[in-house]
Design a protein that fits this description.
The structure is a homodimer. The first copy, chain A, is an alpha/beta fold and about 375 residues long. Chain A has helices at about 10, 20-30, 50-55, 70-80, 90-100, 115-125, 140-150, 170-180, 235-240, 255-265, 265-290, 310-325, 345-365, and strands at about 35, 85-90, 110, 130-135, 155-160, 185-190, 215-220, 230-235, 295, 300-305, 325, 340-345. The model of chain A has no long low-confidence stretch (mean pLDDT about 95).
Chain lengths: ~375, ~375
């Protein structure tokens, strides 16, 4: 019997995963991680109100395909209209839809070299032509991204602010200038997954008057619900409505919808989380300085740590930490791959990191 | 500023939803439904073990992108290898991936006229050319589907067994013959969302030796977890592996993964659900006979009811029931649209249906 007739594009794609999951590494090692600090998860977890709301949901019922209640609350929260918001299966899911809307065979798409691999996965998955610019120092480079977009006539530009994997950020003025300079016919996807951790004023004002900018937000990070898969995008109404052409309308978990709504309503808990994360980042900074490394300034819930050697050293260090039960990750490309990346953890997590780091350094020296 | 450059395909698509959700109808009516019997949800809900497992999950952590534990358990349950299983965001999500893998501009795809709208949504969404054959009586017509697939050189064929929206089914011999006759180069998608409700022996034996048949299963129906969004597909390993090219690897809700695993492990609870559903279907049959209608035989968790008049009558009846707080749906196309469709409910739900039905009939007479 003949093989299925995959589309030429799909036939050409590799079977791949943007990130190897920590569970995969645990199975390979035959042991659970003692501290899970590699995926920028927020180990402080969600508001107890969110936990309660999730537990009380009738999970036998499909979720509301309109995400009506959550969109209403988000609209109030952000002072935009519900028509300016689409809720989806995490930013990952929304990025997939956005790419599908704008990218086909050889469509030029611009991002930074070493930026979010899942975005690149989606671009490749719809046949786009990824064009990259390097980081400037340890920062994404808005001017270079815009210039590249202009040069290649890109339909889509991606930037994360604050940035992952470096944790660095630009202030609102720089980002507003980038928005203002988006070339005609391009869409700028501004991934603000970590923006709640950033200094007040980092996010430029929301402007939903033109369809050339879309902002991505999530309940995975500051709200502590990565496993629930709730992201949302804010944009001009016609761009938001276009998601209805392609999205999996009944794709949202009903408990996740209710949990996100409750989490959004508990801003006091969010404030406490931000304090916890700030304290954890300070402690991570102390720990790594004691070991001769340098923490980069971070506007996220992780600290990117300059190990002051090359990528091979950082890779060895990550492996040595993983072998000691500490799950961490690191940037993929040079020269950022001189760093490792550690998520803000609880005291118990950071105790383990503090104990393991000197052992790991010694083991690879 | 110029409009975003949507792909020509996306620009041509309508903003649509395959089904209007019951919450949308509730908002329009300004009142909650008293009985939710329209979406073939399993109101008996999940195993308490599944509920407990979902509540105990650390929702701050991303789900395992490999769905390893669930795939292992499903492999044992179905006596296939884990490599023969892909887990996704409900059958809806998996259908989207499958269509994306096989369908591009004008690819012929065969289904029954009036079959699952979400499949059609995905086919349209990837530019496929949908070719339909009519139901034969109230049954999907495997011979006609195969003949049409041969005539149009289809890459993908869809059939649900048991069928939705009619609740009818074919035995394993007929389905095996259909599988055996799949034309070279086509893939048969056999949607078995309701198969746990069907007589033992309805499902043909699982054969994962060729990549031209894929079976879709779900935790949304018999396992009572529609809101969790967990579906899976069983197929030959190369076809399963192709999903890794396009799927949202981190798209699964972590609690849903754990809940599905626990639900699968509680087959006693499933057996009790099947008894509850059988009793509810018998009662629905009695109720509608008392009102002069005829229930069709059903191998699902719903009863499709022949109202013995035309589509206009059935549509009016559905509206009259909805106005009385009873959420039901009906087939979309003639002559099946002479019917309405009622999901198996609890005693309290069916009490309400029993009271409302004669009132609704009287109101439209």
């Amino acid at each position: 019997m003949k093989s299925p007739r995959y589309t030429p594009l799909v036939a050409s794609l590799p079977s791949t995963v943007p990130f190897v999951g920590p569970e995969t590494q645990e199975r390979a090692q035959g042991a659970k991680f003692a501290a899970r600090l590699g995926a920028n998860e927020n180990v402080f977890g969600p508001s107890p109100k969110a936990t309660k709301a999730m537990a009380e949901v009738d999970i036998w019922a499909y979720g509301d395909p309109e995400n009506y209640d959550l969109k209403q609350a988000l609209a109030v929260h952000h002072d935009v209209a519900p028509e300016n918001i689409v809720v989806g299966e995490g930013i990952d899911g929304l990025l997939g839809y956005l790419v599908r809307m704008l990218v086909e065979h050889d469509t030029p798409v611009v991002t930074s070299k070493g930026a979010y691999p899942t975005f690149n996965f989606h671009v490749a998955g719809f046949g786009g032509a990824l064009k990259t610019v390097p980081f400037k120092g340890d920062f994404e480079d808005p001017d270079a991204l815009i210039a590249k977009a202009r040069a290649v006539d890109a339909s889509l530009i991606y930037i994360a602010n604050p940035d992952n994997p470096m944790g660095t950020w630009h202030g609102a003025e720089i980002m507003q200038k980038m928005i203002d300079n988006v070339p005609n016919g391009a869409v700028l996807c501004l991934d603000e997954a970590y923006v709640e951790f950033a200094p007040v004023g980092t996010a430029p004002a929301l402007d939903v008057s033109t369809p050339n900018i879309i902002r991505m937000r999530t309940f995975s990070k500051a709200y502590g619900m990565a496993g629930a898969r709730v992201g949302y995008a804010i944009a001009e109404a016609s761009l938001i409505d276009a998601f209805n052409k392609v999205r999996n309308h009944f794709g949202m978990n009903r408990a996740a919808q209710a949990g996100a709504l409750a989490a959004l309503g508990d801003q006091n808990y969010l404030a406490q989380t931000l304090k916890n994360v700030t304290a954890a980042k300070a402690r991570i900074g102390d720990i790594v300085r004691w070991n001769g490394f340098e923490p980069l300034p971070s506007a996220t819930n992780f600290v990117t740590i300059d190990c002051k050697r090359d990528g091979d050293y950082a890779r060895a260090l990550v492996s040595a930490l993983i072998a000691r039960g500490i799950f961490v990750r690191m940037p993929f490309v040079a020269p950022q791959d001189r760093c490792i990346r550690v998520s803000a953890g609880r005291e118990v997590d950071l105790d383990l990191f503090e104990a393991a780091l000197p052992q790991a350094i010694k083991a690879i020296s």
